[in-house]
């Protein structure tokens, strides 16, 4: 692995100038490396971060990728990681014209990393440097603690998808809490809405009155406003003080809770384990937004590499080569999901729709198909609008908002069903639905959606840890429960309970059961798993 040569760097700098002229925004400093296919295979298990800590699973993944490469040889074009400065890797076999296309793709990724709000907790964070420090710490601990270090890593990584990413993201912009802010939050969020059950119109008037008081009296605006509140509601102060006494404790995710309250980890001889758990947790939180914006991120990069590449005079004579590679990357499959293809087409349709004023109240009122098809307010705000979407959306909101019936109809998209042909005894795939709502539901099923696991502090008395799965009609994978709870028991140092929901087995029936294509109603029941002394038990609730 080595830095690109000066000739290739000049190509990249030319791409930067053209990308900025089109509106993309990113830091000046970037690092580009030329890598071999072998380098790619070895970096992939480490999420392409060269300085990430060593772990035995990485070696297993390398062997697996090498075997896959021998069966299906391929040359990945590029990979980029969200670091400071941004680091990107390019295959050594790429010709100059292809690097022009790839550089535009990478620069669009960097623009997304550095401007999308779901990445804002990473904007001032040097991942490569921090990962190197973490790697050295784990290496030093291994020299003294041996295999126990890898046990802790493995058990922590077993639940690192349960980290409180959104809580961490919210804390980035949260102002330091003061008496005024606590009292204000209690008045508007609790007192008016839960205690007094104020009507919406009255609630809005109170907000306007607070803003007017702050505007008129400055630093004294808060005190002036609440002086009127106390005159109107004499009980307010007493209820506010009681609220502070009964205030809920800070909400911690599972790894944070274990680090804070585990009897085992808080022993002096075991406190080194907290450092490893914290490393695993921070690494997981850092990469959460990339998992949650996969369709948008790849679609944004594909949209811009097409726009910018075709307007670059340096690629004259390679338009056909570009078309072949571009089609391979962004072709829309009839079955399955290609995030590059779906995201790129959504951004293109959003830009066109915003140019025509299709994201307005006037357009939403139209019900006539011909009128909707011909509607054009000629706003010219399409490019501005897609930059707004790039900044404020993640995949779930992106798909919810913009995958509508017009989009599904335009690209002839559909949901695929599967049925058994009894005459030929083969499975057949068929068009199950062309409805936008059902197509969105299919896409939602493919998105990253980790389970929501909460800690019940009341039931965790007596040294046990009681976990509650907030059920969303997606059961936990049963085969993983035993090993995961075994790891939690090790880190907690006591009995662990997990309350969740499972499907009630259907009653036995004569014959062969329902016909293919028929669906039986699903019944759920709450169960609790208990891991005690390395043994797993299950009971119905």
Strand content range: 5-15%
Rg from C-alpha positions?
28 Å
- The separation of the N and C termini measures 57 Å
Count of helices? Answer: 23
Count of strand segments: 11
Q: What multimeric state do the chains show? A: single chain
Find the structural class using helix and strand composition.
alpha+beta
- Biggest beta sheet attributes: 5 strands, mixed
**Globular, elongated, flat, extended or rod-shaped: what is the shape?**
globular
Strand order of the largest sheet: 7-8-9-10-11
Unreliable spans: none
Mean pLDDT: 88
Give the % helix: 40-55%
Report on this structure.
- Among the domains are: 2-116 and 293-326, no CATH class; 129-164 and 253-289, no CATH class; 179-245, no CATH class; 452-540, no CATH class.
- The protein is of the alpha+beta class and 541 residues long.
- The protein starts with a strand and ends with a strand.
- The protein has a 5-stranded mixed beta sheet, with helices on one face. It has a 4-stranded mixed beta sheet with strand order 1-2-4-3.
- Helix 6 (148-157) runs parallel beside helix 13 (272-292) and helix 14 packs across helix 16.
- It is built from 23 helices and 11 strands.
- The chain has helices at residues 6-22, 37-43, 56-71, 96-115, 127-145, 148-157, 165-172, 179-195, 200-217, 221-232, 236-245, 254-261, 272-292, 294-310, 319-330, 339-355, 361-364, 369-374, 382-392, 395-402, 405-410, 436-446, 478-492; strands at 2-3, 30-35, 78-81, 86-91, 415-421, 426-433, 452-455, 465-470, 496-503, 524-532, 535-540.
